[in-house]
Amino acid sequence: MTARPPRFVFFVVFCITIGGLLFGYDTGVISGALVVIKDEWDLSSTQQEFIVGGTTLGAIAGGLFSGFFADRWGRRIITFLSSLVFILGALIMTFAKGYSVLIGGRVVVGLAVGAASMVVPIYIGELAPKEFRGRLVTLNVLAITGGQLIAYLVSWALTDVHDGWRWMFAVSAFPPAVQLCCLPWLPESPRVLVQHGKDDRARAILRRIYGTKVPESTVEDELESIHRSMRTENATSYRDLLRTINIKPLIVACVLQLMQQFSGFNTAMYYSATILKMAGFSSSKSATQFSIAIAATNMLMTIVAISIIDRFGRRKLLLVSFIGMIVGLVLLGIAFIFIVGLVKITKDTCQEYAKC
């Protein structure tokens, strides 16, 4: 076992995790941009919801289809396409002259966000040496939270600038441009190459991944492991997931993901500046500035989790985070009661949704 991965692996991980950075930036930048756009265009609450939700809608489609095409075309092609879509979405939002165009740009960006969230961790896992795979894959989560923090900082810096919200979106075009420049040196996944019968190319890439200090037998063992894994996959079907031995872990994994979304944390990130203005912050600048603390805390705890997860285990860390989430959500709910009181939901918004 080597003490650290070769430099080539760090370069590869850096290039790929730009997708995670963009995922974080494009989901975080709307917080600061929305408080400015709302005042400039006099948007209703429903219209704001559609602007925010556009990315989520696009991400659903992007996530669904990117996995299918990543197996057929390769991870590298999907990374290339997602970079182009990120740039296209950024340009649409930057030059949007109206509400509908802005939503369209958000949906386009969402397609790339969904593709990145699907492909990036898989791509890293397949290009990382086995002994470093877990730690390198977690860098994608760090890139996402780092992207959110950068988005909040950029939003704070540009809030009072003329057309500042346009510049907030424009900034998101630069990281995918960097990723496109890196792509000529980014290899295809060995797994995809094996899947297409290109064992020699897969072996050459595995040799670069593991470095010259690792014996050839390690590379051959990894290649055989890929073949073995693919034989197992080809011998099974989706119906096998519903068998007794698989159904429990499948339900647990799906429910965990579902509950993470139902916790509303993403909503708190999307609307953090708006919520802080409701809480009494006098200006968009001050609300956006304080929002930085939320993103910074999120990134800090990601670093803490990465550093202690192997020591304490996934289950303990998950249970502790559950407690923290429950306490935080209860406090947030109490804060809303003090800010706006108990509100009866009586307004019929169907007509307003139809207009959007």
UniProtKB/TrEMBL annotation:
Residues 12-356 form the Major facilitator superfamily (MFS) profile domain. Gene3D superfamilies: MFS general substrate transporter like domains. It comes from the Eukaryota. Signal peptide: none annotated. Its main location: membrane. GO terms for biological process: myo-inositol transport; polyol transmembrane transport. The keyword Membrane applies. One of its GO terms (molecular function) is transmembrane transporter activity. InterPro entries: MFS_dom, MFS_sugar_transport-like, MFS_trans_sf, Myo-inositol_Transporter, Sugar/inositol_transpt, Sugar_transporter_CS. GO terms for cellular component: membrane. The chain crosses the membrane at residues 7-25, 50-70, 77-96, 102-124, 136-158, 290-310, 317-343. Belongs to the major facilitator superfamily. Sugar transporter (TC 2.A.1.1) family. PANTHER family: PROTON MYO-INOSITOL COTRANSPORTER (PTHR48020). This is Major facilitator superfamily (MFS) profile domain-containing protein. It comes from Coemansia brasiliensis.
